[in-house]
Design brief:
Helix content: 40-55%
Number of strands: 6
Shape: elongated
Order of helices and strands: EHHHEHEHEEHHEHH
Number of domains: 2
Radius of gyration: 18 Å
Largest sheet: 4 strands, antiparallel
């Protein structure tokens, strides 16, 4: 889900309602989170919201918010650089995306940020192929090492594996351009 801090979803009341909703879904102590959100000003409220939900929600409209909050948003995003693809995996709506994040933490002991699902293009010379949904997600930098081997048993690939195996044709040029390989 995308929350625009400059729109109606960005007011304090709406953010606390989201904290309750997503806190319940993530089995967090949402009452404690909301109490902490109320302790100071709007910038503090946003910071606490991002600290607790920035991994599962996309937060935009941060222009004009204090530098500390903007820095925290950048750090949260910058901590997730390794893009992964799980071929043939369908996640679904926002609730399923949150459940997927929790599943990955429980089953693999890794923190992830869900990215998207993409439909594959056909293989060259085989127009009947393609159409498979693949799930994409980022792994927290600190968890990449411990995830490197267990991911293989599940068929999860680093994004860079697609390039090294000359399989970038599987995905749209738009997706490739938006997700350049990092190594």
């Amino acid at each position: 889900m995308k929350i625009d801090l400059k729109g109606p979803d960005g007011n304090a009341t709406a953010l606390m309602a989201y904290a309750k909703q997503y806190g319940k879904e993530l089995d967090l102590d949402y009452e404690k989170i909301i109490t902490e959100m109320k302790k100071s000003d709007y910038q503090h409220l946003v910071k606490i919201f991002i600290d607790n939900f920035g991994m599962v929600l996309t937060i935009v409209g941060t222009e004009g918010i204090i530098d500390e909050v903007k820095k925290d948003i950048r750090i949260k995003k910058d901590d997730y650089k390794q893009l992964c693809v799980w071929p043939g995996t369908i996640i679904g709506d926002e609730i399923k995306q949150i459940e997927f994040v929790k599943f990955m933490e429980k089953e693999f002991d890794v923190r992830i940020k869900y990215e998207s699902e993409e439909t594959t293009n056909p293989d060259p010379g085989n127009p009947e192929s393609g159409g498979r949904l693949d799930a994409f997600f980022y792994v927290h930098d600190d968890d990449v090492g411990k995830f490197a081997v267990p991911r293989l048993k599940a068929g999860i690939r680093w994004w860079e594996d697609i390039f090294f195996n000359n399989q970038e044709y599987l995905y749209s040029s738009h997706f490739i351009a938006e997700h350049p390989r990092t190594w």
